Structure formats: C-alpha cells, structure tokens
Amino acid sequence: MERSTLQPRFKNSPHFKDFWQKGNGKLLIEFSGAEVSFKNFEKFASYYYHVDEAGDQVVKDIYFTKKFHEASKEIEHYVRNGVSENDNVPESVKELFIHTQRKPEWLNEDLLKWGAELCMRSGLDALISLRDYCLIGGYDYAYLNKPLIVTEALKKGAVKRLSETLDFWVNATRYNALEIHAKGYEFAIKTRLIHSYARLSIKKHYQGWDTENWGEPINSWDMMATYIGFSLVFLHSLQKLGNTFSTEEELGIFHLWKYVGYLLGIPEDLLPDNKKQATEYFYLWTSIQPPSDKDSVLLAHSLLNESLENPILKFNFQRKNLRYLHICCTWFLLDSDVCKRLSIPDVSNKNAFPKTKRLINIIYNTLFGRKARIEAGNKKHLTVLEDYLRVTAVSNFH
C-alpha cells in the first residue's frame, strides 16, 4: 500500500496555533528572530520515515547474532579501542565506527568548549530546565512518545529513566567529553545502538505500530526535535530562569549538540547551527504532532512522582517538597495550556519559588565570576549524578 504524502496536518489546530501565537512558541520566535513558514516542509517531511540504517545494521550483525552480554562487550571494545579498515569485523561495524572516528570538517573545538562551559555553569538551573521544561514539555507531543509507551518504559520507573538521561547529558557536556573514545563519545555511540535495538524490536514485536501517523519508530525527524530540546528549549529555559549567555556560549550549545547528533546518526540537514534555524525547524515538526493523550499524562505524572519514589532524600516531607518545587517550575516554564493537558496539579503560590530562583540567579551571576560558576556548576552536576547512580545501583551503559 502506497503511503500518502505527509502534510502539516495540525497547522490549523488550536494547540498548534495557540503555542506559536500566544505561548512558548511565540516567545521562541521573539527569542530567536525566526521567520516561520511551511515553505520548507517537504524538505523535512521525508525524515519522518527515515531511520539510522547504519546503526540498525550493526545491531542486526552483532546483537541479533549472539547473546546480549557478549554483543555489548564486543561493542564496548570497538567504542574504546577503535576500528580500522583492516580489522576482521562486519562491514556494518567498519562503516559506523570509521565514520564516527572521523571528525567532520565543520567541527569547531572552541565552540564545543563554549557549549560545555555553558552547560556546566548553569548548575542546578540546567537540571531544572532539562526536567521541568525539555523532558516534561516533550510529553505534550503524543506521537513522539509512542516508542516509550510500546517499549513499556513506564515499567522501568521514572527514577531509572531520569538517571539514564542525566548520565548521558552530564557525560556529553564536560570538557573534551566528545573526543574519540572519551566518555561522551562512548555514551553517544551506545545510545545510538540502543535506539536501533529499540526500533528493530518495535518493528518486529509490536504489530500495532501506526507508521502512517507516528512515522518510523525513533525516526530522524523526531530525533531532531529531541536534540532541539537539548539546545534551543534548554537555552530558552535558562533565560526564563534569569540566566544570560554570550554569543559564543549560545553558538557553542548548538554546536555541541550538532556534533552529538552527528555521532548519533542524525542527518546533518536536520542539525541546526543557531537558535533561528532551530526554531524554524521545530515549527515545522510541531505541525505533525497532536497534543497530549492519555499516555502523555501517564508519562508526565510518572516524572512528577519520581520525587516521591526516589530514595536519595531520606524523609517523606523532603520528597513531597521537592515534588512541589518541580511542579512550580513546570507551571513557570511551560505554557499553562500544556500543563492543563498534562494534568499538572495546580498548586498554591506556584510562582514564588521560580521567581525567587530567577532573582537569586541574577544576583549570583553578578557577584561571581564565570570560572567560579563553571566549577561550582560542574560539581553540583557530578554530585547529583553520583546520587542517582547510587540509588539505581549501576551506571546506565554497562
């Protein structure tokens, strides 16, 4: 059966128009100077049915031909020691690793450093942004979340899922993290193969997958949107929380995630260089996504309740207070319409904490130098990650 041509099917829907004319979409346009339209829609639409075939073939040749722990050990050897043309390994392994071991001509080490430093100096605001804007805001896009639902990610628990995201983000955003065979490079390659493994498993075992509407599982266009969350949406959240950043830092964050996306197998055409491009790309993608559904609400509430389930904090009143603070930040950072669709509880005095945090940030960023903020932020990230790895018992990629 021939597939119909993808259209910007929700461009006249209230959730799309309200977001881009009144909500955070409008703020993103003002923030970025974007000129949004549908003139390039067809250029991007084909990526909804495009996947990382190179990664998929490695999974077929390695993971599907031997025991899982043996396959993982073999991949780990390739990641840490490299692959050459003369090695006696499957052609798919040569193709993927020789490509990712060759740095692209556009890679700028100075911009990578600027991007890493912005991530580090953002401290706890970075973690608030990732959780209460980027991650939970992404749950509003119903089709984007279908791979999480069909692979039963909810059964894994929000503590483990959050730990995995934090582990990846921290290890990808430190100094020299993305050097070949370094920790960030390792996480990117392993994440790429996890995506391929999940995609192939979905296609093999889940008969109800609706490719027409949902696209291919973990398709390239959805991957673009996810990584725009780590750059554009992340920056916008930091700004909302009272942070400022230089032009170099701003370009650096996009460059860092462009390179991570390259390592993950996302086509370079989909990886924006700046906030203007990112907003224009994001505008097109949101036009094919319906608003929250019941699965979205389940994911959002699983994340909200993570604070109650997480044993990092010893006492119940501490956990309840942390959940309350995350709810406050979610209402502050996201559109109220999105919060209502996700059934985020409407708590009292919800603006008090984020507005106080914003004021403290403005003062803190004035009193302390950039280097001190980078060192302090990095230390906070590593402490939080250590706590999560302790309660989930094991590093997420071993």
Automatic annotation (TrEMBL):
Transmembrane segments: none annotated. Signal peptide: none annotated. Residues 156-348 form the ER-bound oxygenase mpaB/mpaB'/Rubber oxygenase catalytic domain. It comes from the Bacteria. InterPro entries: Lcp-like (IPR037473), MPAB/Lcp_cat_dom (IPR018713). This is DUF2236 domain-containing protein.
